[in-house]
Amino acid sequence: MASPLNRNHHLKAMEKTAMGEEEVAPIGHSNSTYVEKCIQKFNDWHGRKNPLGLCEDEQDRLAMSLSISDFLEMKKVLKIDEDEKFPRYCYDVSSTTLTIQRMPSPIHEQVMSTVAGGFSAVQASLPTNYRRSIQIVTNQVFDEFDGRHDGTEKIPDTAVQITDAAGMPRVRFILEVGLSESYEMLVHDAQTWLEGNNDVTLVMLVKLEENPPYVCPVKDLTDEEFEHLKFPDRKSINVKTFALEGDYGPATYMGLAWVGEISGFIEVWERDKLSGMAQITAAGRINLFNLLNTQSTLFTLRDFMELPVEGDHKVLINWDDYFSNLGINICQLAAYRCRQMRKDRAGKDDIRDADYEP
Fold first, then answer.
1. Pairing of β 243-244 and β 61-65
2. Strand boundaries in the chain, DSSP class E
3. What is the per-residue pLDDT for 177?
4. Which of 101, 128, 156 is the last residue of a domain?
């Protein structure tokens, strides 16, 4: 376990986010004034108090500097382990940082679905006993990390667990996707998984990029200037409200961009056999859009498990499935952002995410 943070380091509490608006968690009691401040910061962010005062990264992600003892105290007070509706989070013990995220965007979610589909297809081709040993999981907390990562807790976008002959489930493959997350954050994820958990064989990073990066186009308008635009009612805003300027964005409405043009790339990371450090595989960086009209394979099931049955059992990922929906997913994100803007402008704190059940 890491030693408690230096108190000066506590002053570095910051914020950063992916989508969703949820009920504010109740504040319990903590003996630590700093933990109470972090809980209040979380509740303000989670309840979208003063959202127009946040930068775009802070709208989607909250990051706070916490010693491991303070993190455990915050978990206890907020009952994080008992609350299935608590937002996705990661506690990185090496940097003593707790990061909490809103729900991912449709663009982000569709990558997860596409990659999982590749594993599901090859899984279905196996004999029953091998098929049942494979689990494709999302939204699961993993905390079995060693070395300098001991004490870390992470929820990957997607994980593939394989139960070995001794009946032990072992996480072998990790997918991490980033739209609001920086490339550097994704690389840190890969390093954490590969250098902190010896069971993990490969980590796939998918970095999505938005050009230009999103800034709410009416953020700096006065109330009078905004009213002059005559935006429709929040409930009238949907995917049909927006025009796609290209196949993959930007998505605009009233001449304003609500989602920029989307591009991206893929990297697969592995553990170096000599140093034990994370490194990019020989495939290098792959432009995501070069995979249009292809079924790509960057690994096989044999990379993750022993298979006595014949064949390579390549994991074929059909990126056509992703691109066929990308335009509508971009418009979904645009509609979400625009509706959130209407809520934030109205300041209606009583409007909550209907999917959240405390």
1. unpaired
2. 61-65, 88-92, 97-101, 134-137, 158-163, 169-178, 202-211, 243-244, 251-253, 256-259, 261-271, 278-280, 286-287, 295-296, 317-318
3. 96
4. 101
Same domain (yes/no): 70, 122? no
| Domain-located, residue 144 | yes
Query: Does 300 reside within a domain?
Result: yes
**Residue 125 vs residue 6, higher pLDDT:** 125
Regarding whether 110 and 69 lie in a shared domain, the answer is no
* Overall average pLDDT of the 307-330 stretch: 87
Residues 6+ apart with CB under 8 A from 308: none
Q: How many domains does the chain have?
A: 2
> How far apart (Å, rounded) are the C-alpha atoms in residues 110 and 104?
10
pLDDT at residue 336 greater than cutoff 50: yes
* Domain, as residue range, for 48: 7-19+26-101
The verdict on 93 and 110 lying in the same domain is no
Please indicate, yes or no, whether residues 272 and 303 belong to a single structural domain of this protein.
yes
What is residue 236's three-state secondary structure? helix
Distance CA 28, CA 198 (A): 37
d(CA 181, CA 157): 12
CB burial of 280-293 (b: ≥16 within 10 Å; e: otherwise) equals eeeeeebebeebee
Query: 58 with 194, same domain?
Result: no
**Burial class of residue 315, CB neighbours in 10 A (0-12, 13-18, 19+):** buried
Distance CA 187, CA 280 (A): 10
Q: Assess whether 171 and 51 both reside in one domain.
A: no
Helix/strand number for the chain, H first, E second = 9, 15
Domain shared by 112 and 174, yes or no: yes
Residues 63 and 117 placed together within one structural domain of the fold: no
- Tell me, what's the pLDDT at 309? 65
Pairing between β-strand 286-287 and β-strand 251-253 as defined by DSSP bridges: unpaired
243-244 and 251-253 strand pairing: antiparallel
H helices of 79-201, where?
106-124, 128-131, 183-196
Question: pTM of this prediction?
Answer: 0.81
Closest CA to 209 of 149, 259, 275: 259
